[in-house]
Design goal:
Oligomer: single chain
Number of helices: 3
Distance between the termini: 50 Å
């Protein structure tokens, strides 16, 4: 029982927050970008229409070196620059890997994270209702020890955060953050581009010990 006691202007302090950065391109921006990506994927032999339910196709992980995907790389790097500015980090990033995912109805991506990078992300070329979310999991190892009943989920009481996306959405997050993609419950394929980013001069400048 609270005994009628109240606290004046209490603060909920967001200590050690985990960020997920999301932006939605305008149709005049994502339509030509997506048309170029789909054309390039067709040239790589991606089965954009021929997958059976439950099948999944993934390209190799070096598409950042393919000139056909340069427009996407420019958007990704621009997004990473804006995010680093928000984090007050001055070292530039480079794309270390980029690959395409084509998910037929009935397929998803299991829980995982990306090693040896600072940021990871995804750009959504084709999503629709039933295939329009990505889930992020609380990184604290003991977060699930206690699960009291709650009246509604909030950022303070849930272990899984769902982020809704749409065609033209660009999402960035720490590479260590575990994430998963729900099963595609729509009737069409879900097409996304995944990527990793790392500091360009990590070995030369950042990996050295900082002596104090």
């Amino acid at each position: 029982m609270s005994g009628g006691k109240n606290f004046a202007a209490p603060e909920m302090l967001p200590l050690f927050p985990t960020f997920v950065w999301k932006a939605d391109l305008n149709p005049e921006e994502f339509q030509p970008l997506n048309a170029g990506i789909l054309q390039a994927l067709t040239g790589l032999g991606a089965p954009l229409t021929g997958l059976r339910p439950g099948e999944n196709w993934q390209s190799d992980h070096g598409l950042q070196d393919n000139p056909a995907f340069q427009p996407l790389s420019e958007w990704v790097l621009a997004a990473s620059t804006q995010l680093l500015n928000t984090l007050t980090i001055s070292q530039p990033l480079i794309i270390t890997g980029c690959w395409a995912n084509v998910n037929a109805p009935g397929t998803g991506h299991r829980l995982h994270s990306h090693r040896n990078n600072y940021l990871s992300g995804a750009y959504y070329v084709q999503v629709q209702e039933g295939a329009d979310s990505i889930n992020f999991y609380d990184p604290k190892p003991q977060a699930g020890v206690m699960r009291p009943a709650t009246s509604r989920p909030t950022e303070y009481n849930t272990e899984v955060a769902m982020v809704r996306v749409s065609t033209g959405s660009l999402v960035l997050f720490p590479a260590w953050l575990q994430h998963a993609v729900d099963i595609n419950r729509s009737k069409n394929v879900r097409i996304s581009m995944s990527f990793n980013l790392m500091f360009a001069q990590f070995a030369e400048a950042m990996a050295r010990p900082v002596w104090t």
